[in-house]
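User: My instructor asked us to take a sequence, write out its structure as tokens, and then describe one feature of it. I'm not sure where to start. Here is the sequence I was given:
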Amino acid sequence: MDVKYKTLMIRGIPLLIAAGFLVFGCATFMASEKEPGYRFVTAWGIKGSGPGEFNDPTGIAVTDHEVFVSDARNSRIQVFDYEGNFKRQFGAAGTEPGQLGRPMNLTIAHNELFVADYWNDRIEVFAFDGTHQRTIGHSGSGPGELDAPGGVAVAPNGDLFVADFYNQRIQHLRPDGTFVRQWGDTRKTGIWAGKFNYPTDAALGLDGSLYVADGYNDRVQVFSPEGQFSHKWGGPFALDISGSFKGWFAVVTSITVDRSGNVFVADFYNHRIQKFSPMGGFLAAFGEEGTAPGRFKHPIAVAVAETGDVFVTDYANNRIQKWRPKTG
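Assistant: Let's start with the prediction itself. The structure tokens for your sequence are:
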């Protein structure tokens, strides 16, 4: 190869890299909403310990007609209809079966409510009427043990995928809690694919793919039904860079998949909910910081009803908000 030509080639490499970053940056920063978005419908709740009142609400899950809410510091689950009318509550502070420490993200599957009990290092399972069914897991860092679980996904066969927060991993467990495998290195943080920085929640896609809210890496990671890393998104190359641009995150605290396979993410410090395609394409976002209805102060969890309505736990405002897709 001619020396002069080779020199030009070498000098051109930085330009190509810079051009690549420019293209990537423009594509990211200039992301636009692909859908009409969402409009605020209603909100309910104030700070307190009475029925319909909250003290740091965290997780949320919905059936076809009821809304279940983790009322974390009141150590209970509250149940409402879709308009916010209080129906019942269950759970009490404690460590005995059926009692709760700090309930976090919720999941509904097989006509049961699965509660990630953060302080008690376990998953508590209830019938919808509040009857305790069983306890899965206990404290520790060994296989099948938990250290502050933040959320759980439940497969059609009953298997669990648990966001094991302080153990820095996702665990795959059988319905009885028997360990199957894990993703991530126990008690070690990392930014590369398949590593975690305090994972907070998990959800399963329509095809069985595993979506992980990789909390303090400010990203979503996705694994195939066979358990292989598939893709990730959030900030430049999804490498623990937070920000407020569309498609970026500032701590991911909850993740859920709707009936069409779209992914909704609670973007905690950006005070918004973001919606993505299964491959991570940005679709829409709603919310901004504030205390007025229709604004959020640290939205921490999100659930989507079959109707398309979106319910959000507005953590620091001690309330629940309901949003609906815009038309046209």
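For the description part of your assignment, you could build on this observation: The longest strand covers residues 38-44. Try explaining in your own words what that tells you about the chain.
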